[in-house]
Design goal:
Blueprint (H helix, E strand, L loop, with lengths): L4 H18 L2 H15 L16 H13 L15 H34 L10 H14 L6 H16 L3 E8 L1 H5 L5 H12 L3 E3 L3 H9 L12 E5 L6 H11 L10 E7 L11 H20 L1
Antiparallel strand pairs: 1-3, 1-4, 2-3
Helix pairs in contact: 1-2, 1-4, 2-3, 4-8, 5-8, 5-10, 6-10, 10-11
Length: 298
């Protein structure tokens, strides 16, 4: 059956869809070469040397595909006259469709992780093992440019909570921070850190926060189509716990923290219990001094 421009456009759409979903080198190379050929003046030979970098089987597949897309796989000359603008629009639509589908999958996976790991109550007991896990998480992601704003936001939440013992402090955060910030593994690690290690809770943001999201408050870093949650630390954490957490989450960076951190109305939560025994007081003072020293040095 003879090829027609419309049949090539239809095949082009299928190839673009497969390339984005499969991430296959020969498909990506064939698309690039086809774009070059169809955007060049009639009769222009394009450079096909890139085909030789592929394994033999994929090289053959790429040549076959080029022929189906109206290009001579030997000379690199376009045998059909196609509209490069239309090819570009088809490719962009395929990319957008892939990203929507991928984001839907990530959002569903995030919801599953949150529901499976959500802390059952607001009574977290912070252990040394938990503090070590927090430090490990910070060490792992502190050099990842996409994760640093998240780390800074968490540190600011801890500090403001420590400074506001009689107020509930919330961190309004877009779900996209989990799904789009720091690559594979970050989403699950971050959810486990907040829900399991720190025992944090989340709720729907207030109407005031919704207004901020709609008008695009510059400190919110929120996407237009993502879910939004207001996160907060367990009210059971003592001042000593919060000082230790401040040390564990401390990070010096010029980046801007992600999300919006704010206090709720005064008196909205009971004050945490102060250290009781003499040893508790000594540890509280010692950790407070450590925190001050760390911030002075770094």
């Amino acid at each position: 059956m003879a090829q027609t421009p419309e049949s090539i456009y239809a095949l082009w759409e299928q190839v673009c869809q497969q390339a984005f979903s499969l991430n296959t080198p020969y498909l990506e190379l064939a698309i690039s070469l086809a774009e070059q050929a169809h955007s060049s003046p009639s009769g222009t030979r394009i450079d096909l040397d890139g085909l030789h970098s592929l394994p033999r089987e994929q090289q053959s597949q790429a040549q076959t595909l080029l022929a189906q897309l109206g290009i001579d796989p030997q000379s690199g000359v376009a045998l059909q006259t196609l509209d490069p603008g239309r090819l570009g629009r088809i490719k962009n639509l395929a990319r957008e469709a892939f990203h929507r589908t991928h984001q839907d999958h990530l959002s569903a996976e995030l919801e599953r992780l949150l529901q499976e790991n959500r802390s059952p109550n607001d009574a977290k007991v912070l252990s040394e093992r938990d503090l070590h896990a927090v430090s490990q998480f910070v060490s792992k992601y502190q050099k990842h440019v996409g994760a640093v704003p998240f780390l800074l936001g968490l540190a600011q939440l801890v500090d403001l909570t420590r400074q506001s013992p009689r107020q509930k402090v919330v961190w309004v955060l877009d779900d996209a921070v989990f799904t789009q910030s720091a690559g594979d593994g970050f989403m699950e690690s971050a959810v486990l850190l907040l829900c399991q290690t720190l025992g944090m809770q989340f709720q729907q943001p207030s109407s005031a926060d919704q207004v901020r999201i709609q008008v695009g408050e510059p400190t919110a870093d929120l996407s237009a189509d993502g879910g939004v949650r207001a996160w907060f630390l367990a009210s059971s954490l003592s001042q000593l716990d919060l000082v230790k957490l401040s040390i564990a989450t401390h990070l010096r960076s010029s980046a801007r923290a992600t999300g919006t951190i704010r206090r709720e109305a005064a008196g909205s939560k009971p004050a945490p219990e102060p250290p009781g025994s003499l040893l508790d007081w000594i540890m509280y003072i010692w950790n407070s001094l450590r925190l001050l020293l760390i911030r002075a040095l770094f």
